[in-house]
Specification:
A: alpha+beta; nine-stranded mixed sheet; 5 helices; B: alpha+beta; OB fold (Dihydrolipoamide Acetyltransferase, E2P); 2 domains; five-stranded mixed barrel; 6 strands; 16% helix
């Protein structure tokens, strides 16, 4: 009779401390069943590759700027002046992932959306390691998730709209309106997205971004992406760090990467030593 | 937050300390290039760097008025974006004679942001940029 007592003990512990992950009570991902795969067929068709509507990004940047706090607005104004003067602030130069929500806001590169049981995965092309895992299995956010560039995302379907709730984005991740203008979110950011088809081949992401450290109120904005099915649009590998090197041969004749010299953040020769 | 200027200085200081070189930035805004000016050079392709996040065309030209040949680095968008505009990694090869139109760096350094490149032996012109913007492109 040892096992039942052990079970009761674990259940009592879970009951007394909701959300606690006591030993022996770790949440599990159950193996998917046929019905879980069949359910995927009922989801909207988001296949293909989605390319950002960059002209609309620029229109949104002008017509619907974030409600920056006054002190942040001064910093943003200075960044625009610096950009105009040819000294763009290096928001993306570090080669870290652009992070959330700026990836969705300012990317120039394509992404694809994968459906698997209990999860939606968004894979991006630029800057390597761009990937969003959105759990659609009904779970809640963990009580204390480790911050990350893309945060912790849970989602659910409301008809053909995927509603995504994202927390735990690194405070250093920028809220950016272009590649040279934006500020770190500084923590406590909460992003809610409604991702849905506007028409047969246009995907819209309606974003509600709450970032209390830098915004006066929740910022609502939309970004659009066009579907491409031609195979030449398929996602290619994009490793940002590779751009800091050029193909070369070492002293033994091996193919290696040699560092490039940079000047004012752009590559300047010689291309090989 | 830190002021942008102090943050940039901090990043630069770290980069210099670690690499003992100028700070390298692979992915960046093209506002560094002077988009109010267009410059054209004719020369020979040294190499065409087909890498993310930005491809780079390295061109060697004869210096105006003689002197040592100059090497110029002309940057453009990524392999994925260029592929969709009809480019391949073989679009430009070492030794190709080219005319390159670009937005120059503001301080006269030998670099720029690509507008277009014409292969002088075939007359083919390849354009930079993000290509056409609509769904279901062929």
């Amino acid at each position: 009779m040892v096992a039942p007592f052990a079970f009761l003990g674990a259940a009592a512990l879970a009951f007394c401390t909701p959300g606690a992950r006591a030993a022996g009570n770790e949440p599990l991902d159950p193996p998917p069943a046929l019905k879980d795969y069949e359910a995927l067929a009922k989801l909207p068709d988001w296949s293909g590759v989605w390319t950002p509507v960059i002209s609309d990004q620029e229109r949104q940047e002008q017509s619907n700027p974030p409600p920056w706090k006054p002190e942040i607005a001064k910093q943003i104004k200075k960044m625009y002046a610096e950009e105009e003067a040819g000294r763009p602030f290096p928001i993306i130069d570090h080669c870290f992932p652009t992070g959330m929500p700026s990836w969705m806001l300012i990317t120039h590169n394509a992404f694809e959306v994968l459906f698997t049981p209990g999860r939606v995965t968004i894979l991006g092309e630029g800057d390597g390691n761009r990937m969003r895992r959105i759990y659609t299995d009904g779970r809640s956010h963990p009580p204390d998730p480790d911050p990350s560039f893309h945060g912790h995302s849970i989602g659910h379907w409301e008809g053909d709209t995927l509603v995504i709730d994202t927390v735990a984005v690194l405070p250093q991740a920028y809220l950016a309106v272009n590649e040279a203008v934006g500020v770190p979110n500084d923590g406590d950011m909460h992003v809610v997205e409604h991702l849905h088809l506007l028409n047969a081949d246009t995907l819209a992401d309606d974003l509600d971004i709450a970032a209390s450290k830098i915004l006066t109120k929740t910022w609502h904005t939309t970004r659009k992406y066009y579907r491409q099915r031609a195979q030449k649009y398929e996602i290619v590998e994009g490793v940002c760090q590779q751009g800091k090197f050029i193909d070369a041969k070492d002293a033994d004749g091996h193919d290696v990467f040699a560092p490039i010299t940079f000047h004012e953040n752009v590559p300047i020769g010689p291309s090989s030593k | 937050m830190k002021r942008p200027s102090s943050l940039a200085a901090a990043i630069a200081a770290v980069a210099v300390g670690v690499a003992a070189a100028l700070p390298a930035a692979a992915h960046h805004s093209f506002a560094t290039y002077d988009r109010t000016k267009t410059q054209t050079i004719k020369g020979t392709v040294k190499t065409f760097q087909w890498t993310n996040p930005h491809c780079v065309l390295w061109v060697v030209i004869q210096a105006p008025g003689g002197g040592e040949p100059q090497e110029w680095s002309i940057e453009t968008t990524s392999p994925g974006v260029l592929t969709r505009s009809g480019w391949t990694r073989h679009s430009l090869s070492p030794g190709d004679r080219v005319s390159v139109e670009f937005n120059p760096l503001r301080d006269g350094s030998h670099g720029g942001g690509l507008n277009s490149v014409t292969l002088l032996d075939t007359g083919q012109t390849l354009k930079a940029g993000f290509g056409e913007e609509k769904p279901e492109l062929k």
